[in-house]
Amino acid sequence: MQKKKFAKTEKAFLFLLEKVFELGSLPFEVFDQATAHGGFGKRTLGSALSGVRKRGYVKTIRKHHAQSPMLVLTPKGNLRILLERCKLLQSEERKPWDKKWRIIIFDIPERLRAHRDFLRRHLVSFGFAKLHKSVWITPRRISPELIQLLWEMRIKIYTRCMVVEHMDYDKDLLKKFELLHESSKRISEFVT
What is the C-alpha separation between 192 and 184, in angstroms, rounded? Predict the structure, then answer.
């Protein structure tokens, strides 16, 4: 029961962050409408609101012309939304493979080690596999949200994204990404 309650609060939490992200800010007077629209009870959304505040994802501001306070995303909240969107997009994208590999390489300085480690941890959830410590590959398209996330983290200048049409050996990658059935076709195309 506790796990189910946590999962529902977590969904409400992400719903709330997404609404603030989409609208730029969320007036408290709209909060009741958001509860009805999202299908969450007031208590669940109240718990979610408490959670997003405690984690530093939103802050409350009062604009001089507004009657009620507004919720706005902090930079930390913006990163969280972009991260969740990247995960969602990568898990949803199941289009036929276009026979191209996407590669991200990076050389992030030691002073930004936490950012580098964060990126490595999350590339797997974005559908990438590690070729080397700083070279990651996927058969899927790289989402604009991932590029935006790199900019938000201020590490885009240390990264390069590439699309590779021909690779001399990719059988291990085809197997890893469950694309092996297309392997023989790829090899014959490369040789000819």
Answer: 12
Rounded CA-CA distance 107/102 in Å is 17
Contact yes or no for 176/129 (Cβ under 8 A): yes
| CA-based nearest residue to 170, from 179, 161, 162 | 179
Query: Is the Cβ–Cβ distance between 83 and 124 less than 8 Å?
Result: no
Lookup result for tokens 């690779």 = 167
Distance, CA of 105 to CA of 42 (rounded, Å):
45
**Cβ(37)–Cβ(28) below 8 Å:** no
Model's pTM, two decimal places? 0.62
Can you read off the two tokens belonging to residue 43?
């208590």
Give 149 or 15, the one with higher predicted confidence. Answer: 149
For 34-101, give the DSSP string: HHHHHT--HHHHHHHHHHHHHTTSEEEE--TT-SS-EEEE-HHHHHHHHHHHHHHHHHH--PPP-S-E
At position 135, the amino acid (one-letter code) is V
Return the amino acid letter for 55. R
Q: How far apart are CA 107 and CA 111, in angstroms?
A: 12
* Burial status of residue 115 (CB atoms within 10 A of its CB: 0-12, 13-18, 19 or more): middle
Report the phi/psi class of residue 127: left, alpha or beta, with left for phi > 0 and alpha for psi in -120 to 50. Answer: left
pLDDT tens string 85-95: 767 666 656 67
